[in-house]
Amino acid sequence: MYSSELVKGTLKTIILKLLSESDKMYGYEITQKVKDLTGGKIQLTEGALYPTLHAMEAQGILTTDVVNVGNRIRKYYSVTQTGKKVATEKVNEFSDFIDTMIFLLDLKPKMG
Amino acid sequence: MYVLKDEHISFILEDIRRNGIESEELQLDLLDHICCVIETEMLPNSNFEEFYRSIIHRFYKHELREIQEETQLLLTFKNYYAMKKVMILSGAFSAFTFIIGSLFKIMHWPGAAVMLLTGIVFFCFLFLPILSILKVKEQKQSKDKLLIGIATIFGIVICLATLFKVMHWPFAHILWTSSLGILFFLFLPIYFFGGIRNPETKTNTIISSILILTAGGLLFTLTNLRSSHAVEEAVFNSDDQLLASYIYLSQQKESDSLSESQMLIRTKANELCLKIENLKVGIIKSISSDGKGITEDKAIRIFGSKFDPVQSYLFSENDQASTELASIKKDLAELQKLVQENTNDKECSLLSTQNIHRSDYKNQTLSWEEFYFKGLPMENVFRNFNQLLVNIRIVEINQ
Question: Taking burial as the number of CB atoms within 10 A of a residue's CB, which of B124, B166, B269, B338 is the most buried?
Fold first, then answer.
């Protein structure tokens, strides 16, 4: 499991990428999906996830949809048109960042 | 999968509320999340409450309200930066337009009014309110918040008062006085007595209060500026000379061997002079409380450049004075016609029948009474009346 400092800087990028690839997701689903995809190496904490989701909703990057699930309400998050642009920008920026880090730290990319 | 009952849901919701999650949106998110965790991870025979207590720790480091605080911080942070940007931009813009506008105003260049107006409007209705909101958010005590609010209102009112004064709009004086009232009787007492009680802020409060008092006092000095003594003296002297000429000319009349037409002109001129003098007395009476035993130059000395009362006396509707002015104009035309027809003075010009063009920056065309009496301070109105008296006597004597 990676340290929370590493995850913190990429939280927005991870959420936006996941949400832009699917129609809509709820909070628990996002944490589970990240956990599954990374084999448990990245685990989003709820304390970081929800504040970020709310901030992105306020910025107009995400919208919410409320659905009744049994005896409670579930909030589904989805990406807006602006959000899709931001997602692409964030992913590109991060990819560029990785290239720079590989160069900076003189890492040999693992082949195959 | 464990199935949660309604009472479980209410229990969780109640617990997260009690632990400081105030936002309803966040409550819904967390409730669903916790329910999902319980449904997938809890074994059918486990105790619900025990299990809940064991998993809720995952959501925070120290306490649950961290999520609420973090959300709040991120939300205000975003607005904070946007607001700060708008504040700085509007502040810089208004400062720039205000200074350039003032320069244009001093130089009498066109466009000054527009610049001053936009500068002050941006400052009053964008910069100051945003600054106030940001500062209020930073303060914890309600007393400090109140002080910032009052200071903002003072700032807005005094800026608007300055704008109104510069543009010669009505109510400028009321705005100006009320802004100083807010400063002296609302802001300063709250600031002073609030700060002096705290030993840490005592010295600073005293110094700042003195500075505020001095600055406010300087503004108060500017409230009603009058012309310098030398200027006033010059005005009286020129007026005195005109009056002396008028009195001299009035005494130079030979009563014998006058023709009928000359007699007619003389009577008409006397009537006219009396009317003008009565109107002058009327003006003085309208601005002085008792209106008795006061001469013209004394009136000017006492009342200075009274602008509005003189103007409203001469030009208000349904007023005797405006009728008198119209009658003076009519008599002047009659006298002029009489002189032109009966004497050699064919060019006699007491009254301009055509409109007069004022070649200042406003480039207006005005009627006779507008040109000589409207929009002028008291001393100019008197001077023009006195000049008229002298002109009438010259025409009368020249025949």
Answer: B269
